[in-house]
């Protein structure tokens, strides 16, 4: 792309955004902003969803320099004027299918699109983790980011290490359970096939436990007894601010197990993903070292 040809990017709704030159002031949903930062694009601002509060949830922000990136807020407090206060020339949002902008009211999203280009990337279960990551990488490149071979090498090394740990523990593979504590008495247990990041783990050979069939497409809602009846030896625990503390769910009588901090809204940059895979490998080793 040359400056003479301008900037164009077709998003996952099939809508093309265009500008005379690549945008330089990006406002993004927090997940998208943190991913773009890992790929070499610094957003001027981020915004949250209805799950978020008046301050950014650091479980979702990765390595974003929060002292340099404005937080516009979240939920019902957001309107187009507040989002545009930082002077963005591009908004990057995510969708969980159907092209619906996640985290913004439809009317707010409509008003934004009347004022500034909006790119929406699909992060739904219909796509693989790699496909989603490739779309973020393509957007970052269009905005001027350069490929980072060192980051890709780190990710390849993390994958290889996790495969090696899985192989070493294959005779007695640790049972891994991904969950979001709802209260001291209840948990939302993830169905692994519905989460792109958890599917990566199963593809690498990790034994991610499937909860019982029943209502709930992405999660099974289980009480404490039924949750721990699944005999987890490693727990991937939702650490987002709205999740209940895992220790309250486990209780004082629970058998200690390695815990991996898990953000169900994963970041798709190579270094962030490599970091997560490394933590899973550490936990599997710890589960068998005991």
What does this structure look like?
Helix 5 runs parallel beside helix 9. Helix content is 32%, strand content 19%. Strands 5-4-3-6-7 form a 5-stranded parallel sheet. It has a 5-stranded mixed sheet with strand order 10-9-8-11-12. The protein has 2 domains: 136 residues, Rossmann fold; 141 residues, Nitrogenase molybdenum iron protein domain (Rossmann fold), CATH 3.40.50. The longest helix is centred in the middle third of the chain and has 20 residues. With 290 residues, the protein is of the alpha/beta class. The protein has 9 helices and 12 strands.
Short summary of the structure?
Its main location: other. One of its GO terms (cellular component) is outer membrane-bounded periplasmic space. The chain has 290 residues and is an alpha/beta fold.
């Amino acid at each position: 792309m040359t400056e003479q040809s301008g900037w164009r990017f077709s998003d996952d709704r099939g809508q093309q955004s265009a500008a005379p030159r690549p945008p330089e002031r990006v406002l993004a949903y927090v997940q998208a902003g943190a991913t773009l930062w890992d790929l070499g694009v610094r957003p001027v601002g981020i915004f949250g969803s209805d799950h978020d509060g008046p301050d950014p949830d650091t479980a979702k922000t990765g390595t974003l320099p929060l002292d340099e990136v404005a937080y516009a807020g979240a939920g019902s407090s957001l309107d187009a004027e507040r989002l545009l206060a930082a002077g963005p020339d591009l908004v990057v949002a995510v969708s969980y299918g159907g092209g619906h902008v996640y985290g913004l009211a439809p009317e707010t999203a409509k008003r934004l699109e009347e004022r500034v280009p909006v790119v929406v990337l699909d992060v739904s279960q219909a796509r693989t983790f790699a496909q989603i990551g490739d779309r973020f990488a393509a957007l970052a490149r269009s905005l001027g980011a350069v490929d980072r071979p060192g980051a890709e090498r780190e990710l390849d090394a993390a994958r290889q290490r996790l495969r090696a740990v899985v192989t070493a523990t294959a005779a007695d593979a640790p049972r891994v359970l991904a969950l979001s504590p709802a209260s001291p008495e209840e948990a939302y247990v993830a169905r692994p096939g519905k989460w792109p990041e958890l599917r990566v783990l199963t593809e690498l050979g990790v034994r991610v436990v499937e909860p019982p069939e029943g209502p709930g497409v992405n999660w099974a809602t289980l009480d404490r007894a039924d949750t721990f009846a699944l005999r987890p030896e490693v727990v991937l625990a939702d650490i987002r601010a709205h999740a209940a503390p895992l220790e309250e769910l486990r209780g004082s009588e629970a058998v200690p197990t390695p815990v991996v901090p898990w953000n169900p809204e994963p970041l798709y940059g190579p270094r962030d993903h490599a970091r997560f895979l490394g933590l899973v490998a550490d936990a599997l080793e710890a589960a068998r070292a005991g």
